[in-house]
Amino acid sequence: LLHKTGIHVNLSSIIKADNIRNLCQCIDEGIDNSDVGCWLNEFDSTKPTTVLCCGVIKAEIITNNLLRFSEKYNIYILQPIFNAWVDIENLSHEEIVSRYLELMVRDIRCDISCIMGFSYGGELAYHLAVRWQTHTGQKPMVFMGDTVITDVKPDNRQQPAYKDELEAYYYELQNEFFSKQERLSVPYYQGSVILISAEKETETSFRIANEQEWTAHNTHINIIPVNDTHQGLFENAEHFDDYLSLIERMSASEGTEPLTA
Known about the structure:
- This protein is an alpha/beta fold.
- It has eleven helices and seven strands.
- Helix 6 (93-107) packs across helix 7 (120-136).
- The radius of gyration is 18 Å and the shape is globular.
- The protein starts with a helix and ends in an 8-residue tail after the last helix.
């Protein structure tokens, strides 16, 4: 299948069900990434639009918690990078951002109110907002959930508890991908920016360093500490009402007033 499609990935990655599915689809229909970017709910022109960039987090983990969001926003989903393209291991971070931007330009015909993401998804959301501004002149708000800026070295945060060996292998592939890729530098962004910072299971010195670096790159960033773990920020549904409130308050003030928890 790899030979027929002309796609080059490491042999180990073909055991992933998503890649096997995508490869079979390539044989039957040709390469088609049309569902990498898609609407979570039916588009309503009376609602503002939010883009969710999943990064490396499975989409359903986040979207299951977006019920309140979907009542007030059109939600456009950018699928996780490991589900999106079977040649992901050959893509740079620059190419990933460019591909996602192409999908947004293709599908979104309205102003974007907010681009959000957790962990690496937040990093992608930030870069997409910068490029969306360059492309359209709009300045969507950026909402990042415990996103580590590229200038800060990883901390000794506890590893997640894996459900089985396959899930552990999935995270191993992620770590391999990030270890060999050169990350993008962080440009200044003129729009509003919110960073949710996890306080549990994170070294205080690392968290402070990360917050300071983000502030150095973006002086008007709003940093909100949350008493939960990195994973808890996107897995615990009770947080999402608070996120919605923060985004609405920021939108109402147009980013001119600092937020508090």
